[in-house]
Task: structure prediction
Amino acid sequence: MLKFHPDKQGGDVAVAQAINEEYEILFECVKNKHRNKENTVYESYYETDETPSDFINIINELLKKKGLVVELCGLFLWVSGDTKTHKELLKSLHFKYSSNKFAWYLTYKGYKKRSKTVWEMDRIRQAFGSRVYSNPDDKAVSAGVRV
Result:
Protein backbone atom coordinates (compact mmCIF):
# COMPACT_ATOMS: atom_id res chain seq x y z
CA MET A 1 0.00 0.00 0.00
CA LEU A 2 2.78 2.42 0.84
CA LYS A 3 4.17 2.43 -2.69
CA PHE A 4 0.74 3.48 -4.06
CA HIS A 5 0.25 6.27 -1.50
CA PRO A 6 -0.45 9.60 -3.25
CA ASP A 7 2.41 11.30 -1.38
CA LYS A 8 4.93 8.84 -2.83
CA GLN A 9 6.47 9.26 -6.25
CA GLY A 10 4.31 7.34 -8.72
CA GLY A 11 1.45 7.10 -6.21
CA ASP A 12 -2.13 7.51 -7.35
CA VAL A 13 -5.16 8.68 -5.30
CA ALA A 14 -7.65 6.45 -7.16
CA VAL A 15 -5.47 3.34 -6.77
CA ALA A 16 -4.87 4.06 -3.07
CA GLN A 17 -8.63 4.52 -2.47
CA ALA A 18 -9.45 1.29 -4.30
CA ILE A 19 -6.86 -0.59 -2.22
CA ASN A 20 -8.28 0.89 1.00
CA GLU A 21 -11.84 -0.12 0.05
CA GLU A 22 -10.75 -3.67 -0.78
CA TYR A 23 -8.73 -3.77 2.46
CA GLU A 24 -11.81 -2.84 4.52
CA ILE A 25 -13.93 -5.52 2.83
CA LEU A 26 -11.27 -8.19 3.40
CA PHE A 27 -10.67 -7.06 6.96
CA GLU A 28 -14.38 -7.27 7.80
CA CYS A 29 -14.44 -10.76 6.33
CA VAL A 30 -11.37 -11.93 8.30
CA LYS A 31 -12.67 -10.34 11.49
CA ASN A 32 -16.05 -12.07 11.35
CA LYS A 33 -15.39 -15.45 9.73
CA HIS A 34 -13.72 -18.25 11.64
CA ARG A 35 -13.09 -21.97 11.40
CA ASN A 36 -13.77 -24.48 14.12
CA LYS A 37 -11.74 -27.60 14.87
CA GLU A 38 -13.75 -29.52 12.24
CA ASN A 39 -12.62 -26.86 9.69
CA THR A 40 -16.20 -25.58 9.26
CA VAL A 41 -16.44 -21.85 8.50
CA TYR A 42 -18.84 -19.87 10.68
CA GLU A 43 -19.69 -16.22 11.34
CA SER A 44 -18.59 -14.67 14.61
CA TYR A 45 -21.33 -14.55 17.21
CA TYR A 46 -19.70 -11.70 19.13
CA GLU A 47 -20.94 -8.20 18.47
CA THR A 48 -18.10 -5.73 18.19
CA ASP A 49 -18.16 -1.95 18.04
CA GLU A 50 -14.84 -1.80 16.25
CA THR A 51 -14.94 -0.97 12.58
CA PRO A 52 -12.43 -2.12 9.99
CA SER A 53 -11.01 1.41 9.92
CA ASP A 54 -10.36 1.27 13.70
CA PHE A 55 -8.18 -1.81 13.31
CA ILE A 56 -6.65 -0.56 10.05
CA ASN A 57 -5.57 2.66 11.80
CA ILE A 58 -3.98 0.67 14.64
CA ILE A 59 -2.23 -1.68 12.19
CA ASN A 60 -0.91 1.26 10.16
CA GLU A 61 0.34 3.00 13.32
CA LEU A 62 2.18 -0.16 14.39
CA LEU A 63 3.70 -0.73 10.96
CA LYS A 64 5.41 2.66 11.19
CA LYS A 65 7.56 1.20 13.99
CA LYS A 66 10.58 -0.91 13.12
CA GLY A 67 10.74 -4.58 14.06
CA LEU A 68 7.05 -5.23 14.71
CA VAL A 69 4.98 -8.00 13.15
CA VAL A 70 1.21 -7.54 13.34
CA GLU A 71 -1.11 -10.50 12.89
CA LEU A 72 -4.89 -10.58 12.75
CA CYS A 73 -6.37 -13.84 14.06
CA GLY A 74 -10.15 -13.71 14.25
CA LEU A 75 -11.10 -10.91 16.65
CA PHE A 76 -7.55 -10.50 17.97
CA LEU A 77 -4.62 -8.41 16.78
CA TRP A 78 -1.31 -9.96 17.87
CA VAL A 79 1.97 -8.05 17.87
CA SER A 80 5.33 -9.75 18.12
CA GLY A 81 8.91 -9.05 17.10
CA ASP A 82 10.75 -6.18 18.79
CA THR A 83 7.88 -5.31 21.15
CA LYS A 84 10.06 -4.31 24.11
CA THR A 85 11.14 -1.15 22.29
CA HIS A 86 7.50 -0.22 21.66
CA LYS A 87 6.00 -1.36 24.96
CA GLU A 88 4.60 2.07 25.90
CA LEU A 89 2.94 2.50 22.49
CA LEU A 90 1.31 -0.92 22.78
CA LYS A 91 0.02 -0.08 26.26
CA SER A 92 -1.36 3.25 25.04
CA LEU A 93 -3.25 1.39 22.29
CA HIS A 94 -4.77 -0.90 25.00
CA PHE A 95 -2.84 -4.03 24.05
CA LYS A 96 -2.27 -6.65 26.74
CA TYR A 97 0.77 -8.88 27.07
CA SER A 98 0.51 -12.66 26.82
CA SER A 99 3.52 -14.06 28.69
CA ASN A 100 3.08 -17.61 27.40
CA LYS A 101 3.05 -16.40 23.76
CA PHE A 102 5.63 -13.61 24.19
CA ALA A 103 3.32 -11.35 22.21
CA TRP A 104 0.88 -8.49 22.78
CA TYR A 105 -2.79 -8.77 21.86
CA LEU A 106 -5.80 -6.52 21.36
CA THR A 107 -9.36 -7.76 21.12
CA TYR A 108 -12.83 -6.26 21.15
CA LYS A 109 -14.05 -4.31 24.16
CA GLY A 110 -15.69 -6.51 26.76
CA TYR A 111 -13.86 -9.72 25.81
CA LYS A 112 -13.62 -12.24 28.65
CA LYS A 113 -11.81 -15.53 28.41
CA ARG A 114 -14.26 -18.27 29.30
CA SER A 115 -11.90 -21.24 29.38
CA LYS A 116 -8.72 -22.05 31.25
CA THR A 117 -7.35 -23.83 28.17
CA VAL A 118 -4.09 -22.34 26.91
CA TRP A 119 -3.93 -22.21 23.12
CA GLU A 120 -0.64 -22.07 21.23
CA MET A 121 -0.39 -19.55 18.39
CA ASP A 122 -0.45 -22.29 15.74
CA ARG A 123 -3.73 -23.60 17.11
CA ILE A 124 -5.19 -20.08 17.17
CA ARG A 125 -4.10 -19.52 13.56
CA GLN A 126 -5.62 -22.81 12.48
CA ALA A 127 -8.92 -22.18 14.27
CA PHE A 128 -9.45 -18.53 13.38
CA GLY A 129 -7.30 -17.87 10.34
CA SER A 130 -4.39 -15.50 10.19
CA ARG A 131 -3.28 -12.48 8.24
CA VAL A 132 0.24 -11.11 8.89
CA TYR A 133 1.04 -7.46 8.26
CA SER A 134 4.55 -6.06 8.14
CA ASN A 135 6.23 -3.03 6.66
CA PRO A 136 8.04 -4.22 3.51
CA ASP A 137 10.72 -1.58 4.11
CA ASP A 138 11.48 -2.93 7.60
CA LYS A 139 14.71 -4.91 7.23
CA ALA A 140 14.44 -6.45 10.73
CA VAL A 141 11.10 -8.08 9.92
CA SER A 142 12.07 -9.17 6.42
CA ALA A 143 15.25 -10.70 7.86
CA GLY A 144 13.19 -13.24 9.75
CA VAL A 145 11.51 -11.84 12.86
CA ARG A 146 8.30 -13.87 12.86
CA VAL A 147 5.34 -14.57 15.08
About this structure: Residues 13-32 form the longest helix (20 residues).
